[in-house]
Amino acid sequence: MKQNRTKNSAISLKYNGDSNRAPRVTAKGQGWIAEKIIAMAQQQNIPIKKDKYLVELLEKIDVGREIPESLYKLVAELLAWVYQLNNEYPKNKKNHRVKV
Fold first, then answer.
1. Rounded to 5°, angle at Cα 26 from 73 and 79
2. Are 4 and 41 in contact (CB under 8 A)?
3. pLDDT in tens, 21-44
């Protein structure tokens, strides 16, 4: 039986259109920290999207920092997914969180 040597990773993003220019990384971690981030998201009914490629890119950003412009398109697609899940439009909901 092969063991999975890769650790789970999780990134938390928050976007508030009133106070942020771009989504901000609010938490990130691997292993048990990632599990805690995911558990907290589940408890708060925050959407969770599995996207290994996006996680790899977001892991490079320090907690508290806004995402760089080079990731706007990818994160915009993620936010569109969240809006669709919430059945709301961006203008009706200013504060969005998502765990990746």
1. 30
2. no
3. 889 999 999 999 999 999 999 998
DSSP for 5-49, please give it. -SPPEEEEEEEETTT-SS-EEEEEEETHHHHHHHHHHHHTT--B-
Task: Read off the pTM.
Answer: 0.73
CATH classification at residue 19 = 3.40.1690.10
pLDDT at 92: 47
CA–CA separation, 98 vs 100, rounded Å? 6
Note whether 23 and 79 are within 8 A (CB). Answer: yes
Closest of 59, 54, 67 to residue 30, by C-alpha: 59
- Is there a domain that residue 2 lies in? no
Full domain range(s) for residue 88: 9-92
